[in-house]
Fold each of these.
Amino acid sequence: MLSVEILKVFPGFTLDVRWEVGDGVVALFGPSGAGKTLTLQCLAGLIRPDSGRIVVRGRSLFDSVAGVNRPVRDRNLGVVFQGFALFPHLTVMENIAFGLDRVASEVRRRRTEEMIERLGLTAVARLRPAQLSGGQQQRVALGRALALDPDLLLLDEPLSALDSPLRRSLRDDLQATLRGFGKTAIVVTHDLAEVCQLADQIVVYDRGRVVQAGRKSDVLGRPASPEVASALGIRNVLEGTVLESTAEFVRLDWRGHTMVAANWPERPDLPAAGSRVAFFVRPEHVRLMRKDRGGPVPERRVNLISGAVVGEVDMGSMVALQFRAEGDGPPQARGYDLEIEVSRLVHEKLCVYYDRQWTVSVQPSAVQLLPGLRASAAPG
Amino acid sequence: MIVLPAVLAVASLLLPPAIVQDTLTVFAASDLQLPFGAIVPMFERVTGQKVVLVFGSSGALAAQIERGAPADIFFSADQGYVQQLVDREVLYRGSDQVYALGYLSLVTRRGSGLMLRTLGDLAGSGVVRIAIANPAHAPYGRAAQQAMRRAGIWELVEPKVVLGENVRQAVQFVTTGAVEAGIIARSLAGDPALVAIPVDPSLYDPILQTAGFVRRTARLELARRFLAFVTDTAGWAVMQRYGFARPTSP
Amino acid sequence: MDFAPILMSARVASLATLLAVVTGTPLAWLLGRHRFRGQAFIEGLVLLPLVLPPTVLGYYLLVLVNRSAPVGQLFDGLGLELAFTWRGAVLAAWVGSFGLFVRAAQAGFELVDPRLEDAARTLGRSEWSVFCAVTLPLAWRGLAAGTALAFCRAVGEFGITLMVAGNIPGRTQTVPLAIYDYVQANRMAEANALSLLTLAVVGLLLLLARRGSGARL
């Protein structure tokens, strides 16, 4: 349980955030400079907020009204710094034991050894950080932070210092370790894949403010605004005009095509007919209609859009197609309207490279409305 | 790295201090370097007391003594500095005694091929530089300057004059060949590396070398014995050998 | 060979270096790990004795420690006379080497990554513990280099010593002063011997310091 309220004013930037999370892994997500690391530093006590409150598991770390400001060393937090900040002059063992200096030596030895074994560092226990690989260094940093059995774990971009090929497997390890931790762990990251794999809850930051916070599925599935959607890197954010809206669906017009979007029971508002509305379509939810099987089956005969593939981006196991829809009006941006993600297998089997004319369909549940409108509508 | 100096500091503090407690500290004008270098060992043998010699120009030594330097007895090369210190109550009044009469010598380096017969020769082209002690604080320097003035060559040779911090350093300039000639104390002119001729005594005021006892001294008796030793038979024989004469006044 | 100047130099240089390390480390830490107003001024003050002529420093020290000045009288009262004693020689050597130590030590402290200190704090260490366990070990090279430099400079101190402590054999005559005396007395063999000895000692020290600390001196 963690409750955070921080106001910190700098010339040219203000951090003004308020959020509350339970146990589990919480991702602080957003672009660089949004204030995520600053929040971590305030949590750790390395920077003092101008005003606010920070309460961890019922224990007040900072309270500007009550005049509480626990010194860094009394906060009982585990911090994994960006770049790890391992002590270069100490061995792995000494690094991990560093926070346990006031513990009885027998207990210290036991806990250190347990941690080393749990993280698979037995072979390198007596080496110095400079002699370790990036992944091993990350584990030492984790072990050092966890050794104190902290009330709260803070990780600042834990994987950004590592090479890409490693990142995937280390993310798996990190996920397992964080699961084992049990209490609240805050992970600052700007990598969406990290968020998706590691986090239970997400707090989205943008320019010093929280724009959305909640369970991962809620945030990723239903971004609160086009700004959040763009912060989350969501593509295909489009704008259309409402034709009709009910509790079950919203019918809208987009560039001459009629789209039906499933409405959510939790969303109380019914956009008025004639009003402009923003929505997005996930690239991976746009389906190419196969031409060899005699037309789409009825269930799929919905939200059909015809057009042509005008380009593609090879992403390894997936291919991102750039689709230009038929109809009046200029393309959304950069020459195309929709980004469609297909697996490489599909790309090859359907000979998309040669056959460019396609009809696509989108399930109503995959057309997601966004509250609010955006100044410019570009596909991501 | 802190270990090394710490060890050294502790070790050197524990070592016996280099100075023996009952040593006599003699501040002596630089012209006395050679004679006192011989007299002091004699004195030490006879009395069993240790003596420490500190040389320098009389003026520099006087200044140090006045500032509290731990001298027991002061052998100046003139009367003036001693008088000054007596007046300033640094030396015991009435303790001042003229112990010797000093003389000037004109020297060149042996083997330099330069032949000088009178002071006037200093004006010649073969002499580029002349070394004397600094008249500002060395009596022998003052005397040398006086001699050149009275010889009528001062204006000519002044640009050539090089000042040594004391008369010892002036000698050193000559022996190392840094200068061609020097006007120095006769007591230092006996160096085999030098060729020396006496300077006409009428050209300068008598160099009345005076001594005095420092008021702060705890070794007054020993100081008295040393002074007596210098002026008595044993010490005086050495002084005479180095060219000093008995002072004519009592 | 008269060993008195060698012993005197050993004592004076060691104590002066020790004094420089003890007084210089906190200052170097302050300058190297913090940003505060007036920092440039203090750094300039530290640099000053390194670039001022020794006679100027000697003069000011004399004014400070002679028996009629307050500082001089304070020390006299404690029975620790400064002028014309080996203590004065230590003072002179300390003045000459302090700045060298601080500059090298400051560079050492500056190299310490502040995030490592933050990490130590988050792991529950007090400020003093952070200094001892993280800052000091990581600044080690600068401190070691500074100590070596300070010692070499203290050994070679001449001008200030001459003015403050005088050149009194057995009391204040350090090796450089003894060499000067020998040269003046034309005793070149002894001057040569002492000079070679000093060269060997200082050279060896610098070599060891360079190897041991690996720092740029």
Amino acid sequence: MPGPAPIDPRGPRFNQAVLAVALLTGFLVDWRPVVPLFALVLLAGAALGPRYGPFLALYAKVIRPRLGPPREMEDPRPPRFSAALGVFVLAAGTLAFVAGHPGIGWGLALLVGALAGLSATTGICVGCEIYLLAARRRPMAGL
Amino acid sequence: MIVRAVVVVTILFAIALVGRLYRSWRGRLQTQRPAHPLVPASLLAGASRTWVVFTSPYCATCGPVEELLRASDPEARVVKVDATREPHLADAFSVRAAPTVLLADGGGRVTARLVGAEAVDSYVGRPRGG
């Protein structure tokens, strides 16, 4: 069964870079709304597709036309899964803020920010690796 | 504010450090590892030199690596193995990342092992026997 159409990997990396900068800056100035805000940003791209993620769309419409073609393409499922994990952790962080535990909230947000920064700058996508580990442990149908 | 700045700087430093370590690990070249089993004859198909490229369905750099090997070593056989479809073979050769590339001689002995596209790039750019 053929998989989904491959994507330009620079799109998710741009999205991750924006996410990392936003979360780290939000932590620096203690602006808590950045956590639920970027949970929604990630949710839009992960649940509805890249064209609905605002920064993925910004990359596709504004930045990519100014760049050369990518050296390689990648399967969209691992970065999408990674974004879904980010949504989950940021949602948990938001709940921690609401429950009056800002330390936990920022801890979870910084975890996402650090992993997003790692992926954006080095290509090491921990969420993608988790997806691949899971994929290797289930039947090949649907991969 | 200062504590928060220190935390952010620490995170940025950690990102840079982990990235550097990861690239070093992925790009390392391991040669003459006696622990490797022999490459199965079915993969060698009688060739005197065979590149075995372990890939995965999500590996973006595996295709270019395979093409690079075919172009740079046209006399060798290049065979692709999907590690997710051949998990026993991948385990036998301790494949943990894609692409992992083995160079086997005619007897199936592994004479070089390359992990990551950068390692392949640097290896095929070297003079033969280097």
